[in-house]
UniProtKB/TrEMBL annotation:
GO molecular function, one term: hydrolase activity, acting on glycosyl bonds
Entry keyword set: Glycosidase, Hydrolase
Species the sequence originates in: Oceanobacillus locisalsi
NCBIfam families in the record: PRK09593.1, PRK09852.1
Taxonomic superkingdom: Bacteria
Stated family: Belongs to the glycosyl hydrolase 1 family.
The name this protein goes by in its record: Glycoside hydrolase family 1 protein
Length: 479
């Protein structure tokens, strides 16, 4: 057992989920359809996400839609929050489903049933002194905004988002202190369907609409930050990035430069705008090479400069190794991005390379660049879990993975990095965003549901449940 005493007092230990992956109740409480509601499960999901021209319609004859049920948190939130409290959670990162509050996204008046649902969730968390960390937009844009306006390509969506944000900030101003704007905002480069609300069409070049959409999200994020600081003076608002440090495959300067360019583009572009408050100089060459011309309104750049975030939250699952010239069979799997396979790293059941040191590197890189507090709001191991004959689930592989990553956070703190907290992803089993599967399990809590949607939905504590309970109890002092 590793002895450590480096985690600061008040460190926010907890877990993370997203509304579209756990809630279910997709057509209850006057909720409108959102992006996740039309994504099928299994290998079909990846085909949908990667092929051009997706039509956003539900085809029950052809596909299953696992997000419709999720894990039924909509009806079981009290039971699940009680289990979080039993583990000792100090915080719970969750999201509000935009389409529960504004079913079509463009209404003038919110849906009271949706607002009341989150009141109940926040009140239940408060009962156990669990601090909510709330993501405003987590891959669940109202489908009407996608079909009618083209998602974030439309400037009108900024107005709709601002209206939604003001409603929830005013409603929950006494219940929520920590807010995140857009989940994994930089994912829009790889998966515009989920992050930006549009599917690339065959005749359409993706670069211009992608970066125009980013600009609209930057404006919307700045508006949200300013509104939060005004409505909830003690609030703290963060951006949320996928972060995967990029290693050069070798010391060839060509590969080192390529790795640097890839890292700046994917890891730093959105962070620079949201934290530093301006477009970075390095993006100008990219815009020129891809003939990108961002349409801006008067005052946009001033607004972005004024609406910078208070902290950076990030998901970290893996690092990325890059070589300028590579073949298809060398490319590895990963969270939106892959790179080439790193011979020094092992991989998960889904091919994501496991690199705890990469988290320490990521935290040092981010803090060195921005010097604002950091919050690791996603990190975890998707794996197959087996129920033993006695009913136990001995997920030692998950414990080992999390222990090594928590130790990496501790070492980063010793390096001088300011880290606010740690909320491992999928603290309870949920529907995978990338594959729509239940068999890709992350949780400390097992949910009896399979990839075909069959099961009792019974919750079971895994071995990791008790291990993480001890981690929280000792504030990371005994890993």
């Amino acid at each position: 057992m590793t002895e450590t005493t480096i985690f600061p007092e008040g460190f926010l230990w907890g877990g993370a989920t997203a509304a579209n992956q756990i809630e279910g109740g997709f057509n209850e409480g006057n909720k409108g359809l959102n992006i996740a509601d039309v994504l099928p499960g299994g290998k079909e999901r990846l085909e949908v996400l990667n092929k051009p021209g997706f039509n956003w319609e539900i085809d029950k004859e052809k596909y299953r839609y696992p997000n419709h049920l999720g894990i039924d948190f909509y009806h079981r939130y009290r039971e699940d929050i009680a289990l979080f409290a039993e583990m000792g959670f100090k915080t719970y990162r969750m999201s509000i489903a935009w389409s529960r509050i504004f079913p079509d996204g463009d209404e003038h008046e919110p849906n009271e049933e949706g607002l009341a649902f989150y009141d109940r969730v926040f009140d239940e968390l408060a009962k156990y002194d669990i601090e909510p960390v709330v993501t405003l937009s987590h891959y669940e844009m109202p489908l009407n905004l996608v079909k009618k306006y083209g998602g974030w390509r439309s400037r009108e969506v900024v107005t709709f988002f601002e209206r939604y944000v003001n409603v929830v900030l005013n409603r929950y101003k006494d219940k929520v202190k920590y807010w995140l704007t857009f989940n994994e905002i930089n994912s829009g480069v790889m998966m515009p369907i989920m992050g930006l609300g549009f599917a690339v069409q065959k005749e359409e070049d993706k670069y211009q609409p992608t970066f125009q959409s980013f600009h609209h999200q930057f404006v919307a994020s700045a508006l949200a930050v300013k509104a939060a600081h005004q409505i909830i003076p003690e609030s703290q608002v963060g951006c949320m990035l996928i972060y995967a440090p990029v290693y050069a495959y070798d010391s060839n300067p060509e590969n080192v430069m390529y790795a640097l360019e890839e890292s700046r583009f994917f890891n730093n572009f959105c962070g620079d705008v949201q934290v530093r408050g301006k477009y970075p100089a390095f993006i100008n060459r990219y815009f020129k090479e891809h003939d990108i011309n961002i349409e801006m309104e008067d005052g946009d750049l001033e607004l972005i400069e004024q609406g910078t975030v208070d902290f950076i939250s990030l998901s970290y699952y893996m690092s990325r190794t890059e070589r300028k010239e590579k073949t298809a069979d060398e490319i590895g799997q990963g969270n939106m991005v892959g790179g080439v396979k790193n011979p020094f790293l092992k991989a998960s059941d889904w091919g994501w390379e496991i690199d705890p040191m990469g988290l320490r590197i990521a935290l040092n890189e981010l803090y060195g660049r921005y010097e604002v507090p950091l919050f690791v709001v996603e990190n975890g191991l998707g794996a197959y879990d087996k129920i033993e004959e006695d009913g136990s689930i001995n997920d030692d592989y998950r414990i080992e993975y999390l222990r090594e990553h928590i130790d990496a956070i501790g070492k980063a703190i010793e390096d001088g990095v300011e880290v606010m907290g740690y909320t491992p992803w999928g603290c309870i089993d949920l529907v995978s965003a990338s594959t729509g599967q239940m068999s890709k399990r992350y949780g400390f809590i097992y949910v009896d549901l399979n990839d075909e949607g069959n099961g009792t939905l019974e919750r079971k504590r895994k071995k990791s449940f008790y291990w993480y309970q001890h981690i929280i109890k000792t504030n990371g002092g005994e890993l």
